[in-house]
Write a structure and sequence with these properties.
This protein has one domain. About 70% of the residues lie in helices and about 0% in strands. The protein contains two helices and no strands. Helix 1 packs antiparallel against helix 2. The N and C termini lie far apart (about 40 Å).
Amino acid sequence: MLRIIALLMLVIPGLFAALGIKWMRDTLFGILHSPFPSLSLQFLGGFLLFAAGLAFIGGFILHRDRKRNKVQPRFQKKKKAP
C-alpha cells in the first residue's frame, strides 16, 4: 500500500511537469489555451508548473537516497554542533 502512495506522489507532480512542458511547447507554436489571456503568461505558467514538478520529484528522490545513505558526502545533511 505504501508503494502505491509513493508512486502516486511521484506521478501527480510528473503530470503537472508534463502539462507545463505542453504549455511551453504550445506557446512556441502560437497555440493559446483558455485559462491564459496571453502567450507570455501561458509560457510563464508552463515554466512554473514544470519547475515545481521537477523540484518536487528531485526533492523526493534526494530525501529517499539520504535516508538510505546513497548520496555523496556533499549532499548529506550536516550534523549540528551541540
